[in-house]
Write a structure and sequence with these properties.
- By secondary structure, this protein is mainly beta.
- It contains one helix and four strands, in the order αββββ.
Length: about 70
């Protein structure tokens, strides 16, 4: 099992989502986990909730500065 697969399971990501990158910066104590949709997967519409929709916008939305 790869590091990305371990994080995908640990985060309990649903079908259609996966961790594709994990980085840790010890100096600033920062863990970054990047998540994306699995290509071709179907999801519920974020506006109306209709099931079986494809994701069309894969742009970087935001970064959380917690």
């Amino acid at each position: 099992m790869t590091e990305n697969e371990i994080f995908t399971r640990a985060l309990n990501l649903g079908t259609g989502w996966e961790v594709y990158s994990v980085t840790f910066n010890l100096e600033i104590k920062e863990l970054r986990i990047h998540i994306r949709t699995v290509k071709g997967s179907l999801h519920n519409c974020g506006t109306c909730g209709k099931p079986g929709c494809r994701i069309y916008d894969h742009g970087k939305e935001r970064e959380c500065g917690i």
